[in-house]
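Dear colleagues,

As part of the handover before I leave the project, I'm documenting each prediction I ran so the next person doesn't have to rerun anything. This entry is a single chain, and its sequence is reproduced below.
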Amino acid sequence: MTQQNLLELAKQGDPQAIATLMNRSLQPKGMTASVDVRGDRLQVLLESAQIPNRQGMVAFVRNGITTLGLKSIQSIEIISRQVGNSSPAWTEEIFLKPLTPPVSPPATPDLEVAVPTASVQPPPRRPAPAPPAPPSSGAPSGACSSCGNG
């Protein structure tokens, strides 16, 4: 199988072709990749004598799969384990596409919406309260006009 045929098969989502391409980079480092397609999910099993670096392997798988441009794949599940061990050392799930499409408002070219602009005005000023009256001494301060003292 030629490199071109292998790449075309991988771009079509063929799990064996994807695994073969990955293994060309991984096997010299002592790792092996197995790939399986389950619906819109790609499952990648990475096995090695030593637990591989999680961050580096996630970036490797994401970049490789993104480069292939697999339209039918929504997510990738990466499982890493040591050779001879049945339980994973770590797992990671990568979502390639949003789960729900973004909602955009319907196009209405005939409708023009005027958005009112809010102007901020300071609250009205209130007059200052009158100063308090001086305390009274209890003695009349002068003539009373209504009582006739004056």
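The two ends are 128 Å apart (CA to CA). The longest strand covers residues 31-38.

All the best with the project,
I.
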